[in-house]
Amino acid sequence: MHQEFHKDDLIISTDPSRLDIRAIHAFLSKSYWAEGIPREIVARSIRHSLCFGVYDGSSQIGFAGVISDFATYVYIADVYVVDSRRGKGVGRWLMSCIVSHPDLQGASSHATFTDSIRSSDLHS
Description:
- By secondary structure, the chain is α+β, with helices and mostly antiparallel strands.
- It has one domain: Aminopeptidase (3-Layer(aba) Sandwich), CATH 3.40.630.30.
- It is 23% helix and 30% strand.
- The protein contains 3 helices and 6 strands, in the order ββααβββαβ.
- It has a 6-stranded mixed beta sheet with strand order 1-2-3-4-5-6, sandwiched between helices.
């Protein structure tokens, strides 16, 4: 079952049919951690992950993918918010939605590897 979270004019959804693969690939292929990644690799990783899209109306403005066994381990990957929406709490809200997702409860280990997310963001 897909989850939706609402805040002001934004929606975070785990519905994979809403994801804009073109936009996700465009962002990730220019990121420092996935520069040049082929679109098919992005699409395959999305198919095999629990994904969270952040939307302002019909525009996707953020993304995170979760790799998990849904029991003990949660790895949060490819987290981003577009530049125009950064610094407004969108990323912190996205992380909050991820760690509160019902399918991820009980996991004893959460991990993410990035220069821009503090471990305290995973537990706030």
